[in-house]
Amino acid sequence: MWHNRSVVIYRCVDGYHSWRGSYVSVCGSSGEWLGATLRCIEIKPPVNHLSVLNEKCLHWRAEKYEEDEEVYKVTYVGSRDYERSFHDRGKRRLSSKADQLELCLNLLPVTNYSISITALSSRCTATISTNTSLTAPVVYYREFETPVPTLRLRRSPNTLDTISVYQVFVLPVEGVVMFDCSSPVSSGISIKIKSSTEYITAQIDVGHVRTDMNFTVGDGLYYGGFFNAPLENGRNYYIILRAVSQWKSTLKSSCVLWAKVKGTSYVLRVSSLCAAASIGLVALVLLGGYCFTWYGRWC
């Protein structure tokens, strides 16, 4: 009280904060109070119901008290159990007036992530953890014009080097040829061929490819414990390139029909001069009698 006036100052209780209106009520010389218009609302985290969908997209609800645009800063850090030296870090910013928000990130497979979102107006942060699963590898290669199938294998960025291999299959064409790209593998990522005529001619750890490496079918060398035997003259073959990634009990693979050899002629080149193929085939069925017709056309 002072100078014949009385003043009351209002404050929101703990857990609430003032939002609009006057926090002062004055009783003047007339003896009437001018009422305070203060409104108290519950304090809520600016980022609520944070979740990760499809192992890459963040969803959250924005708790805002005004219609103003909010700026969010998103940071993520990833690590891998089987690769101690691996770290994946990234930052994103998003400005929006919306109440329901979504932001998709480029998260890598088989990685443990910690993701934080900060609302810059309040500097409050919400954090969530997520684990991404194994995905089918991509086959990267470059092909050359040679008398026998030759290509240059290439590593892709951020590949799963330590848990991935390339496998080269030779399938002699005898009627109908069945090849299951999703066939399970044993320890060391090797495969058992159902038919004695089919065989793996090479298995190459992706980590050993470095930037790139050349590989020719039938060069008489050993690759991953498999003998790259020369092709027999006068026989027809399919050459299949398979990429396999395996972590614990989960396996993912993708295949490309790389080449078709008729007799001693390399008659079909599946790729263009530079190709990146990822074909998740459950079963690749090759009709040998039909495929080896005029000009080596596709089945």
From TrEMBL:
Residues 1-42 form the Sushi domain. InterPro entries: Fn3_PTPRU (IPR057598), R-tyr_protein_phosphatases (IPR051622), Sushi/SCR/CCP_sf (IPR035976), Sushi_SCR_CCP_dom (IPR000436). It comes from the Eukaryota. CDD domains: CCP. Keywords: Disulfide bond, Glycoprotein, Membrane, Repeat, Signal, Sushi, Transmembrane, Transmembrane helix. This is Sushi domain-containing protein 1. It is found in: Membrane. It is a single-pass type I membrane protein. Its main location: membrane. The chain crosses the membrane at residues 275-295. The lineage of its organism: Eukaryota, Metazoa, Chordata, Craniata, Vertebrata. One of its GO terms (cellular component) is membrane.
